[in-house]
Amino acid sequence: MLRTAVTATAAVVILAVSAPLGQAAEAGADRGATAREFAVARGTRWAVCTARAEAPRWSRSAGSVVYTTRVTCRGNINRVRVHVIGRLVRSGGGGGTVATSDEFKVITTTNGGTATYDTPRGGAKARRSGTFRGSSVVQITAPMRGTRGTASSKAQYVRVP
Asked: What residue range is the signal peptide (predicted)?
């Protein structure tokens, strides 16, 4: 039996699903262009995570234009493993992917834990001024596989010193 509960708060709709046999819960709530929710549920165990991509900026320590994806999770599963694939894209003329990241982290859900994922993570770097946008694909991978979510930042001009 599939049970669904919907709660609306401000401009956010949260969809939590309790599904048999590990069927993933769909949580396509949107907080503008920068945040998306994704979820996992099995029986009475569930977790919902929100991914938010921040605007690209210059990082002196990284020596590159970077953007950060923040993932916050809550639920009654103690910890979830979240996979984030990030792409830093140059907007406008000469566009295309200039840097990527592919990272897993474990997030505690009981008190609304948060983890940050930076792009780029090693490898290619963006060292020229321009307009950039960050785009991430996120998914809970353990203790069971959940739905995929996405997060995109706004396009931002970044001046490289």
From this structure: 1-24
